[in-house]
Structure formats: C-alpha cells, structure tokens
Specification:
The protein is an all-alpha fold. The protein has two domains: 33 residues, no CATH class; 76 residues. The protein is 67% helix and 0% strand. The protein contains five helices and no strands.
Length: 120
C-alpha cells in the first residue's frame, strides 16, 4: 500500500529533477522515488565493517551488464540507438557511476583504516 506524501522542494532541486526526468522520459514522481530509495539503500561506506569495505574495493560491474553497456555505447557512437536503448544506456551508466563512486569511497576508507596500502 502506498502512502501519499507532499514535499516542498527547493527551487534548484525541483528544476534539476524536472530536467533529468524530461531527459530520461520519466515522470518526476518516479525519478524522485528512485532517488529516495537509493539514498535509503546506500549506507555510508565509513559505517560498514572492514569486510564489506574491502568487498566494495574489489567490486566490479556484473559481466552481463558490462557487455550490454559496451554494446550500447558502441551503438551510441554510431548513432544507432533506439528510444528504449537510450533509457537502458542511461540506467546502466547510472549503475556504472554509482559503482565507481562506491568503490572510490571504499578505497578511501580502507586506506584510512589501514586495510590496504595507499599505493595499491
């Protein structure tokens, strides 16, 4: 069961969200729900135990996702993407970016905790 919540967003955040929703052909509500869900799901890396930090340091995109991403990027360079593929590429690029950010944060925390050498 869904619950209706009314939010008053700062003008700059609302403007950015509307732009991104338009660029990705999504409803503003769906985009905001995704952002909130992601924020809840992603715990701060520095609050994770050492084992999870190290696992994030070694994290890589799933091979199947990487293969599809590479194929879509190649098709984009050739100007051959269909509408559905544009959205899929956008979603996979989001996964890729979030993974890189998580990995970078984990590497920073791992170095700070002395779990790995800063020269790795």
């Amino acid at each position: 069961m869904a619950e209706i919540v009314t939010l008053q967003l700062p003008e700059t955040l609302a403007h950015k969200a509307k732009e991104i929703a338009a660029l990705t052909n999504r409803r503003l509500e769906d985009l905001l729900l995704e952002w909130i869900d992601r924020a809840i799901a992603e715990l701060p890396v520095d609050s994770l135990p050492d084992e999870q930090v190290l696992a994030l340091c070694d994290m890589q995109m799933e091979p199947e996702q990487q293969e599809v991403l590479s194929e879509l990027l190649a098709r984009q360079r050739e100007g051959e993407l269909q509408d559905g593929e544009v959205r899929q590429l956008d979603e996979l690029m989001g996964v890729y970016r979030r993974g890189l950010i998580s990995k970078a944060k984990a590497l920073k925390v791992a170095v700070e905790r002395g779990l790995i050498s800063p020269l790795n």
